[in-house]
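Mods, move this if it's the wrong board.
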Amino acid sequence: MLHDKKIAVVMPAYRAEKTLEECFRAIPHDVVDDVLLVDDASDDATLAVADRLGIRSHRHPRNRGYGGNQKTCYALALQSDADIVVMLHPDYQYDPRLITPMAGMIASGVYDVVLGSRILGNTALAGGMPLYKYVFNRVLTLVQNVLVGAKLSEYHTGYRAFSRRVLETLPLAANSNDFVFDNQMLVQALAFGMRIGEVSCPTKYFPEASQISFVRSLRYGFGVLRTSLVYRLWKWKLVHPDFLSARADLRLASASEGGA
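Not the wrong board. Structure tokens:
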């Protein structure tokens, strides 16, 4: 706990058997109250490793995608009465020790969302990020900052912390079940006036770390651009997309599992 706030770490997992234990042991367990892993129908021993480590886990009977996995993660975290939820990939690409400062920025009441940025501190390329991904990241972030009117260093990190209010308020059930879920969630946070902070986060790329292919990266990039353009049209009151709606039935707290 921090400032009497219950902190939960959620781990959206897929084929994480080789990295899960090292990642889990690096979590600051003196601060974290609960660790929850959601396995997205992996065909390896991810669940067996989680059971051996005593991690509370849930398994999807069929693969629902990265966004679908997160929806389950956040719904279960809300059910466990978490006040702050940190998403940590179990592939050990991000440093779990940063959970403490990220959660602290929310527990102190300064921010609603905190991102672990690979761009702040100039550590992305040094950590092994492929050059094309770095360029892709910078171009998309520039375009997105212009379209949504923000000044984030990146929109594409998978290391994020949220207050309970964020997860209860955003219409997350309307989001994609694919990788663009992350980007939609940040745009939603901006649309709903959530305060977003960032911390510098070193990252590392290695064979066991989860990465998406070049083709899927392109698909993600087009999804990001579409999300930003729809947001701009929404700001101009020209469109009314579900993922920017305030409808209560699109919130995880009231909607059943699923999504677009």
